[in-house]
Write a structure and sequence with these properties.
The radius of gyration is 37 Å and the shape is elongated. It contains one helix and ten strands, in the order E-E-E-E-E-E-E-E-E-E-H. 15% of the residues lie in helices and 29% in strands. The strands form three sheets. It has a six-stranded antiparallel sheet, with no helix packed on it. A two-stranded antiparallel ribbon has the order 4-5. It has a two-stranded antiparallel ribbon with strand order 9-10. Strand 7 and strand 8 form a beta hairpin. The chain is α+β, with helices and mostly antiparallel strands and 169 residues long.
Length: 169
């Protein structure tokens, strides 16, 4: 079988659009482009029976997600709807975008874009604070120095100075 070109990657949120689990949403755990399948968390649950190999072991039934064909899932956009995937070149990088709202679907690119916005905002904040903290000119200097020595209270008792001993006899 030929390798299928996929627009779905591990970690994407998808919704099933066909089959017994139609309408279920989940996160893609694995993509196999050679088979054209993907494994979605909580979708196409199969039961694997495990037989006890010795007297100490117990037989069990394991539930796990089985593969589902890629054509039966669509990516969920941030706008909350299942959508097809388009491709665009943004800032010199090819990214996946939502066909409905043109929102970038690649998480790594979105994080880089958010960091760029944050650094840009910080730079504008620094410029604004730099403008505010310019030194005052000579005529604009404010007299803020006040006397730090406390004046004696009016009701305090006057202190009497005692004579000092001199080092004579």
């Amino acid at each position: 079988m030929d390798k299928v070109k996929t627009n779905i990657r591990r970690g994407d949120s998808v919704v099933v659009i066909a089959g017994k689990d139609k309408g279920k949403k989940g996160k893609v755990m694995m993509v196999n482009p050679e088979d054209g399948t993907c494994i979605v968390e909580g979708v196409n649950i199969i039961i694997k029976h495990k037989k006890a190999r010795s007297a100490q072991q117990k037989s069990s039934r394991e539930k796990k997600a089985g593969p589902i064909h890629i054509s039966n899932v669509q990516i969920l956009c941030k706008c909350g709807k299942a959508t097809r995937v388009g491709h665009k070149s943004v800032n010199g990088k090819n990214v996946r975008v939502c066909v409905r709202c043109n929102e970038v679907l690649d998480k790594k690119f979105a994080k880089v874009k958010e960091k760029a916005k944050e650094t840009e905002a910080e730079a504008t904040d620094k410029e604004a604070t730099a403008e505010k903290k310019q030194p005052l000119k000579r005529r604009e200097v404010k007299h803020t120095a006040e006397s730090k020595v406390k004046a004696p209270a009016a009701s305090a008792k006057p202190t009497v100075a005692l004579p000092r001993k001199t080092g004579g006899a």
